[in-house]
Amino acid sequence: MNPLPPKHLLAGIPPMPALPAAAAARLTGFLTEMEAQSASLIGYPCSQDFDYSEFAPLLRFSLNNVGDPFAESNYRENTFAFEREVIAFFQKHLRAPVGETWGYTTAGGTEGNLYGLYLARELYPDGVVYYSEHTHYSAAKIVRVLGARSIMIRGRADGEIDYDDLRETLKIHRDVPPIMLANIGTTMHGAVDDLKKIHALLKELAIARFYIHADAALSGMILPWVDDPQPFGFDAGIDSISVSGHKLIGSPMPCGVALARRSHVDRVARSVEYVGCMDTTIAGSRNAFSPLILWSAIQRRGEAGFRQRVADCLAVADYAIAKFKEAGIRAWRHRNANTVVIPRPGPAALKRWQIAPSHDIAHIITMPHVTRAMIDAVVADVAQSLNQPKEASR
Ligand SMILES: Cc1ncc(COP(=O)(O)O)c(C=O)c1O
C-alpha cells in the first residue's frame, strides 16, 4: 500500500500534537511486555501468529461501519465491500444458503450470541431459552439483558448437554417455544452439542415452533476444515450462529461474525434516516477494521491454508496429550477439538501459561502459535505443580 501524504496536509488542518517522550517510552515498554506475554499464551483460544501492519496507513481515517453492510449508507468511510466478502466466505463455510441468510461482523462471540437470541426473542416473545451448564457465561448475561425466560440444563461430564434432562425439561414446558442455545464447541471442553439429537428430541415431543442458535465461537472456524465434522451449520437446521474472529483466524482486536436466517433479520430491521440505511445490527457505529483484518486473513490463507491450519492445531493437541500421558497426567480432547482437558494445575503453572481453570479441571488450547517446544515446557510445569503437596500447589 503506497503511503499517502499526511491527511492534515491535504486538508490544511493542524497535525495532531506529538506524543510526549514519556508517553512514547511507556508504549515501547508496553510493546516489550506484550511480546513476552504472547509467548506464554496457551490457555485461551486466541491465535497469535499474524501481522496486519499493512493496515497502518488506514489508522488515519475515521473508518466506521455504521449500519447494514449490504445497504448503502450516508457515511462512506466504511469497509462494507470487504465486510460483504467476509460474510460470503462465512456463509459458504457455515453452509448458509446465500439468498436466505444475512450476516455482519460483530465485536466478538458474545455480540453474535446476543444477536441470535435477540432475533429469537423477537420471533417468540414468550419463548424460553435453554442452555447447558457448560455454556459460556455470556448466555446468562444475555438472557438478563433481553429479559428472556431461561432454563439451565444439566451438562454431561464431557461438556455436552445432557439430552435426558433436556427432554424432560422440554416436556414440562411444551406450551412455550424453545429457544435452544446449542454449543458448537464449549469453552472448557470444546464439546459440540448434537444438533441431530436436539432436532430428534423436538420432533419426538411434537414441538414445531422453536429456534436454534449455535454458539460456535472457536469451533465455527474448525469444523468447516475437518473431514468428519459434527453437524454445525445451517444445513443442520440452525437459525443463527456466532463465530469469533480473533480465535482461530486471529485478529489484533476482538471481532466475530453473526449469521442468521434473513426472515428473522427482516423482522427487526428498521430504516433510519440519520445514517440513510437499515438498522439491522446491535451496535450503531461498528468497527470497520475487523472486516479488513478478516478479509486479509482469508486472502492470505485461503481454504487450503485454513484446512492445514486446523490440521496442525489438532496434531499439536495430540502431541500434548501424548506428552501429558508420558508424564502420568490424564489429558484428553474431543474429536475435532484443539482444547486439551487436564487436571487443574497449581497456581504457578496457571499464571505462567495463562491457563483458565474451572473447578478441578483446566485446559490448554493448541492455537496455531503453540509449538511442540511450548507444550514440552507446559507439561513440565504442570507436572511439577501437580507433584507438589496440595496446600502449596493451590
Ligand atoms: C463457547 C464460547 N462462546 C462465546 C464466547 C465469547 O466470545 P467473545 O470473547 O468473542 O465475546 C467464548 C469465548 O471464549 C466461548 O468460548
Describe what you observe in this structure.
The chain is of the alpha/beta class and 394 residues long. It has a domain at 60-298: Type I PLP-dependent aspartate aminotransferase-like (Major domain) (Aspartate Aminotransferase, domain 2, 3-Layer(aba) Sandwich), CATH 3.40.640. It is 39% helix and 14% strand. The chain has twelve helices and twelve strands. It has helices at residues 7-11, 21-38, 80-93, 109-123, 138-146, 163-172, 195-204, 262-268, 289-326, 347-352, 372-387, 390-393, and strands at residues 101-106, 128-132, 149-153, 178-183, 211-215, 240-244, 256-261, 270-272, 277-279, 339-343, 356-358, 361-365. The strands form three sheets. Strands 1-7-6-5-4-2-3 form a seven-stranded mixed β-sheet, sandwiched between helices. Helix 4 (109-123) packs across helix 8 (262-268) and helix 6 (163-172) runs parallel beside helix 7. The longest helix is centred in the C-terminal third of the chain and has 38 residues, at 289-326. It is globular and about 70 Å long. It starts with 6 loop residues before the first helix and ends with a helix.
In the CATH hierarchy, the third-tier topology of one domain is known as Aspartate Aminotransferase, domain 2
Order of helices and strands: HHHEHEHEHEHEEEHEEHEHEEHH
- Rg is 23 Å
Strand order of the largest sheet: 1-7-6-5-4-2-3
